Every structure is written in structure tokens, then in C-alpha cells.
Amino acid sequence: MRVLIWHVHGSWTTAFVQGGHDYLVPVTPDRGEDGRGRARTWDWPASVREVTPEQLDEEEVDVVVLQRPHELALAARWLGRRPGVDVPAVYVEHNTPVGDVPCTRHVLADQRTIPIVHVTGFNELIWDCGSARTLVIEHGVVDPGERYTGEIARAAVVVNEPVRRGRFVGTDLVRRLARKHPIDVFGMQVGELATPVQEEDAPGIRTFEDLPQARMHEELARRRVYLHTPRWTSLGLSLVEAMTLGMPIVTVASTEAPLAVPREAGVVACRVSDLAAGVRRFLRDPEAARLAGKTARTHALERYGLPRFLRDWDHLLHETATRRP
Prior knowledge:
The protein is 34% helix and 18% strand. By secondary structure, the protein is α/β, with parallel strands linked by helices. It folds into 2 domains: 2-140 and 306-322, Rossmann fold; 152-303, Rossmann fold (3-Layer(aba) Sandwich), CATH 3.40.50. A 7-stranded parallel β-sheet has the order 3-2-1-4-5-6-7. Strand 11, helix 8 (237-245) and strand 12 form a beta-alpha-beta unit. Helix 8 (237-245) packs across helix 11 and helix 10 packs across helix 11 (286-304). The two termini are 16 Å apart.
């Protein structure tokens, strides 16, 4: 089956393209947001092929996987076929809604031709999709292996654009917790969070920008505990990946996280004092951290393992392709 999909979310797409299909990924000369092409910091199989917009109208596409509202018009223009009308399509909603929550209407609400796929049950519950068909296919991750050593007694955080996204991703919580606990932050545009060490009880924040995925996994696994601070985002794949690495978790109990992280795998809390206590406990007790991390890994492989994820997607893609418009 030939599947057209834009390279939008690197970790999610890395799992998605591990299936047994041919994947067409648009590429433009500037490799901008609508034409990033193949990933450069993730390992993608040879079944992922770059195609230019000019080449797309010559391709036999079986299913279009949409992920952003404007891709409806973009696919129609580049393919010369309308998603859901002339070519089968599904829409993956990666995000929690913003605006008039919980009354936020989805862009595809009430239509009947394109199913809306949510990545968490929480997202499906909160979005108002009207009478549109919705379903949940939870995340899957490529198992990076049990790499946890916890040799560096610091907490690790992964977040992209923390300054712009602010309270949504808990940037203020990272800064607040870093007054008493050493924290390393990984991701895109994290440099502005770095703070110098000014006194012994204010360790500050160190930042590590744009590491390739394999290198980031290696560095995360050396940190003692994984700290997850978002207040209002979808379930971060970095959290699931940290669990598969065998890291103990301290997470804000918001959106899907309380259901994704069993309590035996770490600390799930709303009070900042409880989050701080969790980080402090694991930094001081390597054996407790190791045991919690083993539970986290077992749970992540059972719930978010790649085989289940690919089976779920295979079923939907085949079902969608056989119901040709």
C-alpha cells in the first residue's frame, strides 16, 4: 500500500513508517514545514521515499494520512485529488484542543468521509468532533533498549520551544524545581532556559539542543530520573521513550499522563511539593530509582510497544483503502 504522509512529528512518524507499506513523504527545496522529506536525526527504513509536489500527481496513492488542517487543501492541490472524496484519507489529531475547552470544535467535526484518529483517549474525550467517526490509536515507540544507568544525579526534561509554549509545557515548573534540584533540559530552542549556578542550593538548569534521537536516548538514560512537566499537551512521546529506557518518572498528573504512568513507576502528582519530593527521592536513592524504572519499562513495552501500534494502524489503513470514495 502507498501511504502519503507529511513529516510533522519526528518520533511519531518514526514509529509509523516501521510498518510494511511504501511511504511517500513530500520534500521541497527549502525542506520547510510542508516538505521536510526524510528525517535526518531519526532512523527511517528504505520504504520511506521522498517525493516532490510535482511528482505527486503521477503517484498512485492508496491512503492519505493528514495531520494538520491545511493539508486537506495541500493534498488536493499536489495530488489533484481531494482527500476523502477522490482518495481515501484519515486525519491524525496529535494535540489537545485549545480555546473554548471542552467545547472546542474539531476542524473535521460532523463530516463522515475522513475518520479522526486520536493518539490518546483523553484527547478523544475532550475534542468536540460532533458526528464524525473517531477512534483512538495510542502511541507506539521503537524500543531503544533498556539503557538506564542513572549515573548522573540530575533530573532530565525533554521539551521543544519551552519559552514560547510557557505554562502549557510547564516551563515555570522546570524553573521552580531547578532552584533546589539539578535539571538537564533536552530539545529544540531550550538554550534560553539555561541558568548559571549561583549558590549551592540553586543548581540551575543545563540545556542540550537538537541532539539526534539515539544520542539523546543515551544521554537521558544516564540521568537519574525523568521529569515531565506539561499541564496541557497530548501525551509526549519523550515520556514513553524515557519509560522504555528504564527511567523512573516524576510527572504532572494532567491530561493522559496519570493513565500512562503506573504509580509504581514513579510519582504522579498535581502538587509541586509532591513533584519536588519525588525528584529528591530518586536523586538520593539510586536503588529506588532503578526499581521504578524497571516497572516503567515493562509497562511501556506492554502498552506502547511497536507491534500493537503497527497492527492497529494496519487495520485502519486497509479498512480505509478498501472503502474507496
